Every structure is written in structure tokens, then in C-alpha cells.
Amino acid sequence: MSNQLSDRINSLPVSQTLAMAAKARELKEQGKDIISLSLGEPDFNTPDFIKDAAIDAINENYNSYSPVNGYADLRESICCKFKRDNNLNYTPNQIVVSTGAKQSIANLVMVLLNPGDEVLLPAPYWVSYSALVTLAEAKYIEIPSSIETNFKITPAQLEAAITPKTKLIFFNSPNNPSGTVYTESEFRALAKVLEKYPNIYILSDEIYEHINYGTPNFSFAAIENMYDRTITVNGVAKAFAMTGWRIGYIGAPEWIAKACNKMQGQITSGANCIAQRATIAALDAPVSKIQYMVDEFQTRRDLMIDLLSKIEGIKTNVPEGAFYIFPDVSFYFGKTIQGKTIENASDFAMLLLEKANIATVTGDAFGAPDCIRISYAASQENLIEAVKRIAKVLA
Ligand code: GLU
């Protein structure tokens, strides 16, 4: 009966990150010794001080609908966080709390885009950007980059991609999947181009901001003349090991926040009330409280770079943030390994899954067909074993 479904859902691609995670889970249940490096999900527990705040909220009977855009005191905490970490001045009426940063982005594209509008996606980009833009009946235009430029786009590339139909551009730093972090001066150079096109809005996805190994984060909205047209997206999933709690938020011009509020008033009525109370505890805490996770991620990154660099044909950059390695594996295209001819990154990822029991995600899903994404949000023991198996299959 799937032909009875809407064109909208029939043309929507499955989320490759979630699909690969589901596949790994399924194979594990069948008894296979799978190491899943597919999902971008911290393998830590949510810190106790956050869990305690949630337990308190239950005992204090937080069980009713919250305001659609989030509790007023949570929106205050978010404003303080934006000031403290990003030097951004927002007031609570510019904040909308949603069911994960994914919903924040979904709201935004739904309220801002008309059919036929064009959205620029510097590649590589997170899998759901392109799908959500398509859902909003707009068209996404990729701006390619490669490992040679550390997966960054240039102002000239940006300028060349702009057309009269361009309405929105996505920035994501630190980037999923490449781990690339744009510096302040690089962002300012890109903003110089956008200055000339006042009808283009900017979505700055900063969900990985705390998982950063050195290059200071810079928020696009902190550029004076970009503030009024930038929507800053963030959330607690990655920094606080709270992926399942599903809390994301935006800071935006008030008219955009109001529209997102209206949109989610018809879709979810607002985010989960207990998770919102827990988020206040997370955001009010000093960032130093989560440093132990960042330190561990950095150790794993160094470990992975070291181990992968010993395998012929796996070309890596050094990711400066997030918890992914995004190697270029095009060296293997056209080669036959264990009876399987590798035509592209999807074949390569399947080879790793079938012959090494290692789940990764193909770069195609991120607009980078020469690469695969390896999440190192896994124990060092598993990472060492995973690379050992990959090396054996490729040897
Ligand atoms: N953002 C994470 C990832 O890229 C979680 C899965 C998803 O929502 O895509 O793996």
C-alpha cells in the first residue's frame, strides 16, 4: 500500500545515520560481533547533577504543558548561556526550545522557506539538512569542499553559489561529519560576501560547540551586521550526553522565533517538561563540569588519527571538534577486496560492515562521496579493535 503514501514521504530519504545505527543493532541482535561507529552519540551517562534536576522536577509535579516555546526560566538560562559562551545578546522572546536541535532546524526551514527557494549547504553537511530542506519544498545547492582544504569553503565559492533565489545558508562549526572548526576570521570573510546579499538568512548550527579541541569557537551571529539575519541553533544532546532527552533551542530575530513558536504549537505543543527542567541545570553549570568528556574525546581522536594513519589509502585530516573522523577512502575505488569491487564510499562502508563487522556511515549521505564517517564516541578498547579489523580487511 506504500503507493497510497504522499509524494512528500515517498521522496524523503531515510536518515543514513539512524539507518546504519539500526542495521548495526539488528546484526548485533542476530549475534554478530558488531562494533558500531555509526551514530554520533556520546557513550557517557548524563551527569548526575542533571539527572537529579530531572528527578526533582518529577517530584515537584512538573507534569503539565509548558509554554510552547519553553519555560520562561529555561529561556532565561539559555540567554545567559549565549552571553557567557558566545557573546550573543538574546532576550527570552528570541528563544524557542524544541524537541531536539533537529526540530529546531525543521521549524526554521518550514517557517522561512517557500517552494523553489534555494538553500546553500557547504559540504560535507549533516544528513538531515538536505532532507529537511526538501521537505520544505525548497532546493538545496551543495558547495563542495575536500580534505585538501580541511573541508572548508572559500568566500569565492560562496559568492559563486548565490543566485537571486538563495534564501538561506547553513553553517555548522564544529562540523558533523568533518570535525572542521571555522575561525573567526574565516567566518568574517564569508560574512563579507553575505553583506552584499541582505535577503539571505544564516542558520548557524553550533550543537558541537563544547566538543572542541583548541580552535576557539566563533558564533556567526556575533558578527555585528549578521545578527539580525542569523538563527543560532544549539542543544544539550552532545555536550551533556543527553541525546535521548531531546532538547534543542534557537536564538533568533524575534519575528522568526514567533513563527517557530506558532509552528511547533501545531506539531508538538512544546518540548518534554522534565527534560526542560534538567536542561536548566545543564546550562547553568560551569562548562568545566563536562570537560572530562571532552578530554576523553580528544584522547580518542588522537588515538584514531594515529591508528588510521598507518593504513594505506586512508587519508585523514585532523578534526578540531565533534567526535567524528571523516577519511577520504577514494584510493580504494576500483579495487577488488575479498571478492567485492569497491566503486564508491557506500561500497566501502558495506565492505567494512560485512567483512569487518564495523558500522560506519557513507560520505554520500553528507554530500562527500569520497569519504566515510567514523564516530569515535566509543570506548578506546572498541576503537583499537575496530581499526585492527579494518586494517586486516584492507591489507
Ligand atoms: N546527529 C547524530 C549523527 O549525526 C545523531 C543521529 C542523527 O540524528 O542523525 O549521528
Per-chain topology:
Blueprint: H1 7-10, H2 16-29, E1 35-36, H3 48-59, H4 72-86, E2 95-98, H5 101-112, E3 118-122, H6 127-135, E4 139-143, H7 155-161, E5 166-172, H8 184-194, E6 201-205, E7 230-235, E8 248-251, H9 254-267, H10 273-284, H11 291-308, E9 324-325, E10 336-337, E11 340-341, H12 345-356, E12 358-359, E13 361-362, E14 372-375, H13 380-394
Parallel strand pairs: 1-12, 3-4, 3-5, 5-6, 6-7
Antiparallel strand pairs: 2-8, 7-8, 9-14, 10-11, 13-14
Helix pairs in contact: 3-10, 4-10, 5-6, 5-9, 7-8, 11-13, 12-13
Tell me what the structure shows.
The chain is an alpha/beta fold. It has 2 domains: 7-45 and 290-394, Aspartate Aminotransferase, domain 1, CATH 3.90.1150; 48-286, Aspartate Aminotransferase, domain 2. Helices cover 39% and strands 13% of the residues. It has 13 helices and 14 strands. It has helices spanning 7-10, 16-29, 48-59, 72-86, 101-112, 127-135, 155-161, 184-194, 254-267, 273-284, 291-308, 345-356, 380-394, and strands at 35-36, 95-98, 118-122, 139-143, 166-172, 201-205, 230-235, 248-251, 324-325, 336-337, 340-341, 358-359, 361-362, 372-375. The strands form 4 sheets. It has a 7-stranded mixed β-sheet, sandwiched between helices. A hairpin with a 2-residue loop joins strand 10 and strand 11 (340-341). The protein is globular, with a radius of gyration of 21 Å. The mean pLDDT is 96. The site of glutamic acid (GLU) has 11 residues, from helix 2 and helix 6.
